[in-house]
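Q: Sequence in, structure out?
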Amino acid sequence: MSQTSQYQVLATQPQKAELEVKRSQFIALAYRVANVAEAKAQLSSVKEAYPDARHHCYAFIAGAPTDSQVYGYSDDGEPSGTAGKPIFSRLQHSGVGEILVVVVRYFGGTKLGTGGLARAYGDVTSQLFEQLQTEPYIAMDERRITVGFSREGDIRRAIEAAKGKVIAEVYNSEVTLTVLVPSGTVLPLLHDEIEQKA
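A: Exactly. Output:
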């Protein structure tokens, strides 16, 4: 495994932390996202889930933490630099990749000022990271496997045992499974089957 691929990812999702400051409610939510498109789609889902919130500020690293091409953040209407940057700063120093953090804010009627806002967004994100459940990132290879119907159950069990998963299947005269398995995995049951990189 290369140096750039050694990082942590969320073990479960979503993960959540909450903070109240002068009656304003800050709800931090963490999701695993493999790319920028997934991050944007997940952000849209959060906005739908919390439609009455005044702000949905966020930051993401939608890949390896060292890949600046997959960074993004937004203040979503808060004063410039008071929300997205404090959230992103916590992400950047966490060693966690493939992550989106959205902080939903319900305004409590009292203005917090730029310093107070930056502290609140940073604090709720820090609180989230203190309890974050992570696991090591495992690079996955996509493969297509064609087998007879009688072997399908055995092959599925072998894939599961290898910590892989079936992401698509096509049934014709035989079964063609598209699977994700950890890079370098050898599935011993496949010596007689047709296996190829997808």
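The longest strand covers residues 24-32.
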